[in-house]
Specification:
single chain; alpha/beta; 434 Repressor (Amino-terminal Domain); Rossmann fold; six-stranded parallel sheet; 14 helices; about 45% helix; elongated; HTH_LacI; DNA-binding; transcription; transcription regulation; Peripla_BP_I
């Protein structure tokens, strides 16, 4: 049996003695207190590493009545858009020494509730939630029963109320239509229209409002569905019509990239005789041919803001009633509209 098998765990008092400080000072270093001089802090930290000291965070959390963890429940963790949101949440949580536990609802209300219950079983201090399609009173009742601080992100279920952080989808679509009209486009189709959740409805509202503002025909809409699907046959009919559209605003970049391929199959050239705009500014957008004009909705910033708001709620700071933080979008103009890259 090796000497390490019988060795007792290194205590904070051991660290303090080896570093030549009091136990209270070593404890202040663990808590990242500004009261400790930089030289002393560095000496204590180095001593902890050398002795192999392991901080018992679980015991500390029990004393503070918190676990230093939050749950992040998303509808599709495989999407690069949601991955960017996760990165934003993690950046803010890391700065606060908070661990993020991620769950995937796959847009199933039943699975969403199961995931929230499991996160509660792990004693998370709160959750950031992108509500699944079809979320209803059952979700609201469960959150109330669990007494769990919750910030909605990207989508919001009105029945939940409370805090929300998201992009301004409506104004983003309006910016896109304004740009197309300004460049001479008059027959603009919205591809991927759906009303399945709040983010979709706000896109639809933005398009219809912009079309009316500019006095255009508001009937050019191609329906969408989950998983980036849209009515391809309906788009084909419009492209073959006597007076076909000359531009498309798409629900997201994935649909926009598919629409550009569809245009080529009809002998139309995106960026030349047909303008295409997507939404979300995925990495694939800039690398497309032609490079895709898109509405950047800044999911990383949404994630950062949502995590910061949840931390505030957990700490019970500020007003307790629902706070809405809306991140303004940017229109990034690229060759799919016939112009060189600019941001607006």
């Amino acid at each position: 049996m090796s000497e390490y098998t019988n060795r007792r765990p290194v205590s904070l008092l051991d660290v303090a003695k080896a570093a030549g400080v009091s136990r209270a000072t070593a404890s202040l270093v663990l808590r990242e207190s500004p009261l400790v001089a930089d030289g002393t802090r560095q000496r204590v930290v180095e001593t902890m590493k050398n002795l192999g000291y392991i901080y018992n965070r679980g015991a500390a959390n029990l004393r503070r009545n918190s676990t230093g963890t939050i749950g992040l429940v998303l509808s599709n963790i495989g999407s690069p858009f949601y991955s960017t949101l996760m990165a934003g949440v993690d950046e803010t949580n890391e700065a606060g020494s908070i661990v993020t536990l991620v769950a995937n609802s796959v847009d199933s209300p039943d699975r969403q509730i199961r995931q929230i219950r499991r996160l509660r079983e792990h004693n998370v201090d709160g959750i950031i939630l992108c509500p699944a399609i079809g979320s209803d009173e059952t979700l609201a009742a469960e959150l109330a029963r669990l007494d769990l601080p919750c910030v909605q992100a990207l989508r919001h279920a009105e029945l939940l109320g409370g805090d929300y952080v998201g992009a301004d989808y409506r104004s983003g679509i309006e910016k896109a239509v304004r740009h197309l009209v300004g460049s001479g486009r008059r027959r603009i189709v919205f591809v991927g229209a759906t009303t399945l959740h709040s983010a979709a409805r706000e896109r639809n509202e933005g398009f219809r409002h912009a079309i009316r503002m500019h006095g255009l025909n508001d009937g050019l809409v191609v329906a969408g569905a989950p998983d980036n699907a849209y009515d391809v046959a309906a788009l084909d009919r419009l492209l073959k019509a006597r007076n076909p559209p000359d531009a498309a605003v798409c629900y997201n970049d994935v649909i926009a990239l598919d629409v550009m391929n569809r245009l080529r199959s009809h002998g139309r050239q995106p960026g030349q005789d047909f303008a295409v705009i997507g939404m979300d500014n995925l990495p694939q957008a800039a690398g497309a041919f032609p490079a895709l004009t898109t509405i950047a909705t800044h999911p990383r910033e949404v994630g950062q803001q949502a995590a910061a708001l949840l931390q505030k709620r957990i700490a019970q700071l500020g007003p307790s009633k629902g706070e809405h933080i809306i991140v303004p979008p940017s229109l990034i103009v690229r060759r799919s509209c016939g112009e060189a890259s600019v941001a607006a």
